[in-house]
Amino acid sequence: MDTIASLFAFITTPVSWIIVQFHKLYGAIFGPDTGWAWGLSIVSLVVVIRICLIPLFVKQIKSTRGMQALQPKMKAIQERYKNDKQRQSEEMMKLYKETGTNPLSSCLPILAQSPFFFALYHVLSKIASGDEIGVLNQRLVDSAREAKIFGAPIAAKFMDDPGKVEALNATLLDVRIVTAIMIILMSLSQFFTQRQLMQKNVDLTVKTPYMQQQKMLMYIFPVIFAVMGINFPVGVLVYWLTTNVWTMGQQMYVINQNPTPGSKAQDQYLQRLLKSVSSHGEVRGRRRRTVVQTIVAKGPDRNENERRFIGALAKAGFSAQADGTVTKVDPAVAEAENAAAARRQQPKRQTKAKRQATAAQQGATKPSLEKQPSLEKQADEPQEDKPKQAGRTASGSARQAKSGQRKGQQRPKHPSSKK
Description:
- By secondary structure, the chain is mainly α.
- The protein has 18 helices and four strands.
- A hairpin with a 5-residue loop joins β3 (318-320) and β4 (326-328).
- α9 (172-200) runs antiparallel to α10 (209-229), α9 runs parallel beside α11 and α14 (304-315) packs antiparallel against α15 (331-344).
- The termini are far apart.
C-alpha cells in the first residue's frame, strides 16, 4: 500500500494544503490539537472532492442507465457471434458508438477519487512516522500525531503492533475497537448503497446478466472493503466512511427525484406526483412538468408505471397535456380517452425466433385427420370385399365426421324405423 501511495506523491501538496486550511477553521473552534479539528478537516476534504465530482456522478448515472437499456441487445450480439469473438467485440463497440454509451463512465467517480485517497494515505503515513510532507511542517505533524478520534490516533492502524501504538500515546485496544467499528460502518454503508440501487432503481421488466453482476457486487464490495480496512489508518477510514455516506445520500436523492424508468422507485415517484396533482390541481415545479411531458410524448411506448399514472390521472378527472401541465376534465371522458389510447397501442413486434416457435406449435396441434385420407374418400372407394351394411356404416361415419359429430362406427338402424 505504501508503494502505491508513493505513486501519487505529486498530489500530496494540494491535499495537505486543503487539510491545513480546514484545520485552521476547526482548530479555532475545537482547539488545534484535538481529534475533532483534524477529523473534521478530513471530512471537509471529502466534501470538497465530492462536490467537484458531481458532473462525473451525473455521467455515471446516465451511463449506468444506458448499460441497463443495452443489455438485451448485447445479449443478442453475444448469442449471434458466440463463435467469433472478434466480430462480437466489433459489434459491441459499434453498439456503444451508436448509442453514445461508455462502459467505463460508471467507474469514473471511483477512478477520479483514487489519487486523493492514496495521497491522503501517504500523508497520514508520514504523520505516523513524524516526517514533514507537503505544507505540513513539523509543528503540524506533531499536532496531527497527537490528535485522537475516540481515543485512537488518526495515523494508527488496526494491524499496528503495540509498540507503535504506544509511541502515539494510545492503547492497542482503543485503536482496534475504533477501527473495527469504522470498518463495519464502512462495509454496511457500501452494502446499503448497492442494495437500494438494486431494489429500487433497476428496471424490473428487463432481466439481464447485468442485474446478476450488480447483485454479486452488492456482497463482494463490502467484503473487499472490510479486508482492506484493517490496513488503513484511522484518518483514511474517516475519509472512506465519509465518502460512502455521501454516495449513499447522493444516490438516495437521485432515486427519489430522478428514478430509472420501469423501476420501483419510478412507481413511488409517480404516486407522489399524482397525490400532489390531486391536492393542488396542477403540476408544481418545472422538473415535474418535464416528467409529465416526457410521459405524454412516449405515447404507446409508456411502461406499466407510466400507464397506471395516466390512468389514475384520468380517474381523478385530469388530462395530461403535451407541455407537462394538466387540465381538469370530466372523469368519464378522460377515462374513455385513456381507454381509446390503450386500444390504439400496437403490440410489440415479435422476434423471428418467437414467430418460428409459434408457427411450430400451431403446426404440431393440427389434427392428424389432415395427414390421412378423408373418410369421404374412403367411402367412395370400391367396397367389393365388404358387405353392403358395412358400406352404409362407413358412409354414415363420413357424414358424421363432416358434420362435426362424434366419429366411430354407428349401430345399424332397426328395420322397422323410418329411413
